[in-house]
């Protein structure tokens, strides 16, 4: 295992430097070598994160800003490394000092640093405050506070008077303007004016910003602005709007005519307007995509190529397969072999153009036991039920009784033999759902006595005395929020409020490793489908990629503006998806740590993600009760499934991808016709060309079934290999 | 709609008084108004911040309820020491108090006696988490098993029966979570309207039962009225718990109503009881909503309450039990389906009503709760008392009548006593009632053991006459015989107890009983021995030992009194002799002659006065 990992790190580092020599290596290197930066890893991570979104000239400035920051914190070693890697001349830093314009734009990036360090390492907060103040001072432009409502209402009148087709687009400006004007007022200590302004215009804002507005409303003093995360999100990220060229021209002309510099300044400084040519979008189109903390994703953010195809299944020797099959049932053998060969053949014959190369990221080699498991899998697959609208799956519901509202996470093994639950009382419990009981490995002393040459040595090492239906794993010191089985069923991961991710052995039922890195609650963790790697994300807004045998993360994915609430590996292990409370979903490339997709459109924190089995699509569910479907290839939303009345906590595609199941706090499991949703997409190529989604409201047609449980919120769903749907939740009478 | 809510959110801050109160609690006496205002804003802001963080923990805990541990975690997130000692799974019951122009919410911390905790048996150990599997759906169809919710939830049945024209397919009403303002949204709304318009026609429901259901129905009904008690219990259990019965409900209700009709005529008591038990089981079933079938069930139940004859031999058979049971059913249905269906007080007002019917009526009304007793039964106590007296003491009419009257009497006593207590003494009433009852039995016991020192009360008669003639003023301090117990326990809180006040028209007599020695064993109400007399005088200061004011109120209507105030109240207070000395000195209200002597409750006093109120309740 160690060898594999070492290879990975080397390969990755080499690649990083080759592909994006300027900045990409920074984050990764810092994260990997630890060194002097280990005290504040988040700041280095943030430095790495900026690069993906920033253009080339900005890149330079970002680097300078990072250098300056490092220097100020006396992290000279890192300064040297960074400078060497980025190929910056020694004196660049001094140059920058004189360049005032550069300084200004740098602040923008520095904020992220400052803000991150402030939130993550309170000790550093004192030093960073000057920076924050500088950033905040961007608000200090003096304008008569009395005029703010006048400006705003003037703009409002103008937008209401423009043609219908432009009105919807221009209305997008309201919310960011409103927020920034309010913050300016607050910053300049016009408290009562700010309040009046807020009360006057808060009703105009779209209802899906309500949560943010609530936070904003509580913020009424300049002192509050320091350290308020939401505020800093606003300041540090430009709110992205997509507006057609015509509409933008209209707005520009109006503002210039009126000499409305106040608003124009805000638009220039704090908004990123993504101008496109063509027809303005309609209200429903805009509504579908907006709602995130920082506006829509930029179009170019979703342009990168994503290898969403599946990896080639490894060839498995047939003799072994035959033996097994013969042993099981002889007469069924010829029948079964043929379809299997076909399915395998089709996969191996022509390489999927969208699939990443087999060695894009190093994956662990298959062990014998894994091969056996694969064979089992294929056998089961032949017995799989073809699902469809006329052939709905049966649902078996596992209720956790007497959990006293304490069940926080559930996972099933892929072969559905084990079920694990994470609880608010810091425990993890594992149950066996098959008659096979859970046994521990014998103690070391007893193991010495075993005849190591015997055939059933694997059986002999187990301690029969410990056999029981369930085992409890103690170790965490806070509620367990995320849980994930390794594909080979030997390990279990759990992430907790205490900031650690723990790896448990399911052989000895003890904790093997506690991965420390997140200093704040870790909301979710997920094993790679190929094992070995796993991803975790939490309150610190950074998703970390780990390998089981490294105590430090291999990658840090930073860019979300709020807590990462759920994490998911792509079926080909080359990508990870993270959902966040900033109401966006990001797709990250494991290889280079880049953010390759940003999906916006949810109106609440995202709590469930699911990749389709073919790797092409992503489904996401949020507290707003909606499921959105995304095409990874072109980065477009292509479906919206409405029906749930409460937060969605679980999503799962059936094994062949025909059915999407969603489970929610409203105590229901709903089944959706995924095939039909995919079909609709393929017939519609206009949207792909323009980048504008136009969703039909066909949730009712796609909804295949609603199954109400008895006051049991559905928090996990799982399709067995034969397409039986398992659901789990705790019964709350 | 959202606007209003938001505006509220914007302005909510803690009041400055809270700041002051908190400052005082940590020893800062004088806090300036501006500092308070600044503090309250800051604190409100921080609280909101923490609450928002706590929400995150709630969401990730997959709960709908915010718990104290969420707040603790949120505080931890901010590097603040969490608040210890507020672990609670449920909401924290804040108590509210107001007085002196200040309103306070406080957390009630009861003083706990450690020895109590040690001596109480340990609570049951909570069950461990366990896993249970069931089929939520089998190939797309949800099986109707107890683990799954009933096919048509009770709410839906209720909606169907009460608002039949407003049925909307579930899931249809939630059009979109984003109320848009544009054309798109309007069309969506229009579509929704159209759909709803289509559904507004109530679909004709066909009541077809599957073969299994028919078999089930047959089995159940046979078992319910059959002879095998074990089978019947099983069948009733099935009716009371099975979630999938609502389709058979019309059948069952018809079965019951027809059954009652036939069996009342034939005076078949046993079958009537069985049918009533079926009604009970149907009512107990949490998945059924009976509203639609009340028109059949209520008459059947009422028949069993008030029918003249329910059995062949009314003098022997215990048809009273059936009446009681049916009355309880009636009350239950009235409570559950609180519509205008509880109009059953009609028939018993007649002179000629049979005792059986009368009994049923009273039982039925009594089951409906103290308010009904108060408004409907109490005013009639006089008449009923007279009637009972006529039967009991008058010339022997018939044995049946006598039994009937006897039953009615005991029923009245059973239900009215506690209610009267409640009316007079509020919350403590029923407890007082039971305690006096206990005390009385004990007193009776002592009376046998201890040397009988039965005393006649010195001045009962004069007081009576005076108050009846309405010359309360002349009696001065003697008549307002109100006893105040010291400190916290105000026994007669509803009545202001100023001694100078003229006594209310309904006179009260005090009968005091002080039993020497043995009384200390009847520790009923323990009074703290605080010497501070409450401003309302006439308190009984307890000097050394504990006092046991055991108060029992007897009510009834003396024949000589006016109709408007038919009740007299007799209060019996028993005091230990040790207290008597202090009583003598301090309390001018109580006649010394009473207090100085060990008294015993002389309850028979009132017996002779009003036959209707000879309320030595038998229980």
UniProtKB/TrEMBL annotation, chain A:
UniProt key word Transcription regulation: yes
GO MF term (any one): RNA polymerase II general transcription initiation factor activity
In which ranges do the WD repeats occur? 400-441, 473-508, 515-556, 557-598, 599-640, 641-673
Q: Where is this region: Disordered?
A: 1-58, 318-365
Keywords for this protein: Nucleus, Repeat, Transcription, Transcription regulation, WD repeat
Q: Which parts of the chain span the membrane according to its record?
A: none
Main subcellular location of this protein, as a coarse class: nucleus
* Low complexity composition bias: residue spans: 24-57
Q: Which GO terms describe its biological process?
A: transcription initiation at RNA polymerase II promoter
Specify residue ranges for compositional bias: Basic and acidic residues. 12-21, 341-353
Q: Where is the composition biased (Acidic residues)?
A: 318-329
GO CC, alphabetical: transcription factor TFIID complex
Q: Which Pfam families match?
A: TFIID_NTD2, WD40
Ranges for domain TFIID subunit TAF5 NTD2: 143-271
Task: From the Swiss-Prot or TrEMBL record, state where the protein is found.
Answer: Nucleus
Q: What family is this protein classified in?
A: Belongs to the WD repeat TAF5 family.
Q: What is this protein called?
A: Transcription initiation factor TFIID subunit 5
Classification of source organism: Eukaryota, Metazoa, Chordata, Craniata, Vertebrata
UniProtKB/TrEMBL annotation, chain B:
Gene Ontology CC terms, in alphabetical order: SAGA complex; SLIK (SAGA-like) complex; transcription factor TFIID complex
**Which keywords annotate this record?**
Nucleus, Transcription, Transcription regulation
Per UniProt, subcellular location reads as: Nucleus
| One Pfam family linked to the record | TAF6_C
Stretches of Low complexity bias are at: 578-590
Task: Provide a GO biological process annotation.
Answer: RNA polymerase II preinitiation complex assembly
Enumerate the spans annotated as TATA box binding protein associated factor (TAF) histone-like fold domain. 12-78
Record carries keyword Kinase:
no
Homology family? Belongs to the TAF6 family.
* Protein name as catalogued: Transcription initiation factor TFIID subunit 6
SMART domains in the cross-refs: TAF
Task: For the region Disordered, give the residue spans.
Answer: 142-185, 578-619
For this chain, one GO molecular function annotation is: RNA polymerase II general transcription initiation factor activity
Q: Does the keyword Nucleus apply?
A: yes
Q: Which domain of life is it from?
A: Eukaryota
């Amino acid at each position: 295992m160690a060898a594999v990992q070492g290879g990975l790190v080397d390969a990755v580092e080499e690649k990083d430097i080759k592909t994006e020599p300027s900045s990409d290596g920074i984050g990764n290197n810092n994260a990997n070598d630890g060194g002097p930066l280990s005290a504040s890893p988040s700041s280095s991570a943030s430095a790495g994160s900026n690069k993906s979104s920033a253009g080339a000239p900005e890149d330079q400035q970002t680097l300078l800003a990072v250098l300056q920051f490092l220097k100020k914190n006396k992290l000279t070693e890192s300064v040297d490394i960074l400078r060497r890697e980025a190929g910056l001349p020694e004196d660049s830093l001094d140059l920058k000092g004189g360049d005032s314009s550069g300084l200004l734009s740098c602040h923008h990036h520095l904020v992220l640093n400052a803000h991150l360090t402030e939130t993550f390492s309170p000790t550093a907060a004192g030093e960073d405050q000057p920076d924050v103040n500088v950033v905040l001072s961007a608000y200090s432009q003096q304008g008569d506070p009395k005029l703010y409502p006048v400006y705003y209402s003037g703009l409002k009148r103008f937008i209401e008077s423009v043609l219908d087709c432009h009105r919807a687009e221009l209305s997008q400006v309201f919310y960011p303007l409103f927020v920034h004007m309010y913050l300016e007022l607050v910053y300049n200590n016009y408290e009562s004016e700010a309040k009046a302004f807020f009360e006057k215009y808060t009703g105009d804002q779209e209802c899906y910003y309500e949560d943010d507005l609530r936070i904003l409303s509580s913020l009424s003093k300049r002192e509050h602005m320091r350290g308020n995360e939401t505020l800093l999100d606003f300041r540090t990220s430009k709110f992205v709007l997509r507006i057609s060229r015509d509409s933008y021209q209209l707005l520009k002309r109006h503002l210039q005519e009126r000499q409305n510099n106040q608003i124009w300044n805000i638009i220039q400084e704090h908004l990123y307007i993504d101008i496109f040519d063509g027809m303005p979008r309609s209200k429903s189109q805009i509504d579908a995509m907006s709602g995130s903390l920082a506006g829509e994703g930029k179009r170019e953010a979703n342009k990168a190529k994503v290898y969403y195809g599946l990896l080639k299944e490894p060839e498995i020797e047939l003799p072994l397969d035959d033996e097994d099959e013969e042993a099981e049932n002889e007469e069924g053998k010829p029948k079964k072999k043929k379809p299997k060969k076909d399915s395998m053949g089709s996969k191996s014959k022509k390489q999927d153009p969208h699939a990443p190369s087999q060695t894009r990221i190093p994956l662990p080699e298959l062990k014998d036991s894994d091969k056996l498991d694969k064979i089992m899998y294929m056998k089961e697959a032949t017995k799989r039920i073809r699902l469809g609208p006329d052939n709905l799956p049966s649902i078996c519901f596992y209720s956790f009784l007497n959990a006293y509202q304490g069940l926080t996470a559930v996972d099933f093994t892929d072969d559905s033999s084990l079920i694990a639950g994470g609880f608010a009382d810091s425990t993890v419990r594992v149950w066996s759902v098959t008659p096979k009981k859970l046994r521990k490995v014998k103690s070391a002393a007893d193991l010495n006595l075993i005849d190591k040459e015997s055939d059933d040595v694997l059986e002999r090492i187990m301690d029969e005395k410990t056999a029981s239906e369930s085992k409890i794993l103690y170790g965490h010191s806070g509620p367990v929020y995320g849980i994930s089985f390794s594909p080979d069923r030997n390990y279990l991961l759990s992430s907790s409020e205490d900031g650690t991710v723990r790896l448990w052995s399911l052989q000895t039922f003890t904790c093997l490793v506690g991965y420390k890195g997140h200093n704040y609650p870790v909301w979710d963790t997920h094993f790679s489908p190929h094992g070995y790697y796993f991803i975790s994300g939490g309150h610190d807004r950074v998703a970390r990629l780990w390998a089981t045998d490294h105590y430090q993360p291999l990658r840090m994915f930073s860019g979300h503006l709020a807590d990462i609430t759920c994490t998911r590996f792509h079926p080909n292990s080359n990508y990870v998806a993270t959902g966040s409370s900033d109401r966006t979903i990001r797709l990250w490339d494991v290889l280079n740590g880049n953010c390759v997709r940003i999906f916006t459109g949810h109106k609440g924190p995202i709590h469930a993600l699911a990749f389709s089995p073919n790797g092409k699509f992503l489904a996401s569910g949020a507290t707003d009760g909606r499921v959105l479907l995304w095409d990874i290839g072109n980065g477009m939303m292509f479906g919206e499934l409405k029906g749930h009345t409460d937060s969605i906590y679980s999503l799962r595609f059936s094994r062949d991808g025909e059915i999407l199941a969603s489970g929610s706090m409203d105590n229901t499991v709903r089944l959706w016709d995924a095939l039909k949703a995919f079909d609709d997409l393929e017939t519609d190529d206009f949207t792909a060309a323009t980048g504008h989604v136009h969703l039909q409201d066909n949730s009712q047609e796609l909804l295949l079934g609603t199954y109400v449980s008895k006051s049991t919120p559905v928090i996990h769903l799982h399709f067995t290999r034969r397409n039986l749907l398992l659901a789990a939740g705790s019964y709350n009478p | 709609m959202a606007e209003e809510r938001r505006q509220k959110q914007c302005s909510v801050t803690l009041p400055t008084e809270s700041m002051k109160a908190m400052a005082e609690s940590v020893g800062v006496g004088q806090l300036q108004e501006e500092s308070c205002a600044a503090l309250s804003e800051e604190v409100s802001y921080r609280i909101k911040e923490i609450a928002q963080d706590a929400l995150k923990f709630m969401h990730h805990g997959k709960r709908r309820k915010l718990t104290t541990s969420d707040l603790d975690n949120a505080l931890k997130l901010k590097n603040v020491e969490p608040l210890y000692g507020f672990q609670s799974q449920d909401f924290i019951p804040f108590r509210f108090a107001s007085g002196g122009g200040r309103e306070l919410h406080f957390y009630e911390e009861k003083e706990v006696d450690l020895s109590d905790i040690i001596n109480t048996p340990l609570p049951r150990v909570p069950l461990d988490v366990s896993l249970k599997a069931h089929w939520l759906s089998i190939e797309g169809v949800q099986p109707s098993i107890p683990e799954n919710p009933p096919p048509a939830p009770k709410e839906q049945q209720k909606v169907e029966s009460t608002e039949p024209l407003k049925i909307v397919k579930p899931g249809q009403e939630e059009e979109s979570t984003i109320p848009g303002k544009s054309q798109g949204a309007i069309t969506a709304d229009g579509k929704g309207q159209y759909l709803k318009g289509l559904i507004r026609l109530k679909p004709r429901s066909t009541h077809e039962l599957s073969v299994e259901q028919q078999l089930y129905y047959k089995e159940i009904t046979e078992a319910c009225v059959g002879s095998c008690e074990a089978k019947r219990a099983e069948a009733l259990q099935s009716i009371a718990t099975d979630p999938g019965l609502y389709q058979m409900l019309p059948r069952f209700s018809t079965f019951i109503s027809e059954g009652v009709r036939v069996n009342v005529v034939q005076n078949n008591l046993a079958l009537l009881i069985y049918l009533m038990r079926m009604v009970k089981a149907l009512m107990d079933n949490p998945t059924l909503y009976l509203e639609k079938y009340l028109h059949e069930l209520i008459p059947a139940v009422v028949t069993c309450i008030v029918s003249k004859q329910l059995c062949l031999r009314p003098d022997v058979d215990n048809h009273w039990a059936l009446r009681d049971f049916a009355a309880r059913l009636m009350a239950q249905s009235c409570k559950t389906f609180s519509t205008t269906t509880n109009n059953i007080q009609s028939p018993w007002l007649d002179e000629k009503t049979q005792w059986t019917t009368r009994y049923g009526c009273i039982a039925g009304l009594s089951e409906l709760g103290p308010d009904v007793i108060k408004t409907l039964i109490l005013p009639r106590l006089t008449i009923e008392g007279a009637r009972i007296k006529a039967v009991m003491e008058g010339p022997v009419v018939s044995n049946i009548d006598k039994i009937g009257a006897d039953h009615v009497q005991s029923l009245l006593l059973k239900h009215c006593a506690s209610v009267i207590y409640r009316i007079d003494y509020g919350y403590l009433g029923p407890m007082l009632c039971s305690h006096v009852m206990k005390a009385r039995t004990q007193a009776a016991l002592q009376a046998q053991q201890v040397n009988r020192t039965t005393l006649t009360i010195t001045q009962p008669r004069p007081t009576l006459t005076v108050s009846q003639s309405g010359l309360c003023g002349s009696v001065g301090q003697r008549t307002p015989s109100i006893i105040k117990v010291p400190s916290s326990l105000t026994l007669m809180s509803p009545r202001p107890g100023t001694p100078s006040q003229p006594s209310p028209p309904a006179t009260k007599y005090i009968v005091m009983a002080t039993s020497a020695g043995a009384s200390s064993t009847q520790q009923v109400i323990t009074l703290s021995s605080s010497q501070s007399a409450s401003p309302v005088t006439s308190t009984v200061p307890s000097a050394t030992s504990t006092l046991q004011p055991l108060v029992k109120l007897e009510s009834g209507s003396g024949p000589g009194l006016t109709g408007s105030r038919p009740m007299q109240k007799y209060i019996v207070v028993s005091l230990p002799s040790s207290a008597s000395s202090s009583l003598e000195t301090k309390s001018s209200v109580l006649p010394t002659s009473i207090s100085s002597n060990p008294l015993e409750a002389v309850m028979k006093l009132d017996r002779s006065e009003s036959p209707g109120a000879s309320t030595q309740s038998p229980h």
